[in-house]
Every structure is written in C-alpha cells, then in structure tokens.
C-alpha cells in the first residue's frame, strides 16, 4: 500500500492537523515509511508466542466487581456551581 499526497492531506484533516501544501509530500513519505515498518513486523513468525501484558510475568490486579453508590457525593457536588437536594441543579431548557 502506498500513501500519496491526497491521502496524506485526508489523514491530516481527519487528525485535525494543519499541514501546509508543500509539506504534504514529506508527510506522505513518512506514512509510507511507517507502513513499511508495519509490513516488516507482519513477517515475524509469532506462532506459539503467548500474548503478554508486561515484560515481567505477573498477574493483573483486579478489584471486586461490586456495585456501590461511590460514596463521593459530597466531594462531587462540592465542585458544582449549583447543587440542590444532593443533585446538580441546571437551568430549565425546555418549556
């Protein structure tokens, strides 16, 4: 797969990055280099290799899956500009 100037312009637009017109060819070349590295990674034989979450084997920390009310209502409402009866108060927007 090869990235041309128009595709680089579209990717920059989707990423909300302003790229000058004269910089688009260099950006397209960088994208092509990245895709080349990815193609090299696809050539690596990973048969029999287990996925890992870290370079050191250790179990993931897990918490109990318990439903709670959070216990932080006072802390959360303290930041609200207007709170009444334990809830956020907002202006009426519908008649």
Automatic annotation (TrEMBL):
Keyword annotations: ATP-binding, Ligase, Nucleotide-binding, Protein biosynthesis
Pfam families hit by this protein: GatC
Record EC number: 6.3.5.-
Top EC group: ligase
Lipoprotein among keywords: no
Catalytic activity: L-glutamyl-tRNA(Gln) + L-glutamine + ATP + H2O = L-glutaminyl-tRNA(Gln) + L-glutamate + ADP + phosphate + H(+); L-aspartyl-tRNA(Asn) + L-glutamine + ATP + H2O = L-asparaginyl-tRNA(Asn) + L-glutamate + ADP + phosphate + 2 H(+)
InterPro entries reported in the protein's UniProt record: Asp/Glu-ADT_sf_sub_c, GatC
Keyword Protein biosynthesis attached: yes
Domain of life, source organism: Bacteria
Job of this protein: Allows the formation of correctly charged Asn-tRNA(Asn) or Gln-tRNA(Gln) through the transamidation of misacylated Asp-tRNA(Asn) or Glu-tRNA(Gln) in organisms which lack either or both of asparaginyl-tRNA or glutaminyl-tRNA synthetases. The reaction takes place in the presence of glutamine and ATP through an activated phospho-Asp-tRNA(Asn) or phospho-Glu-tRNA(Gln).
HAMAP family xrefs: GatC
Subunit-structure text: Heterotrimer of A, B and C subunits.
Sequence similarity: Belongs to the GatC family.
Protein name stated in the entry: Aspartyl/glutamyl-tRNA(Asn/Gln) amidotransferase subunit C
Protein species of origin: Pseudohalocynthiibacter aestuariivivens
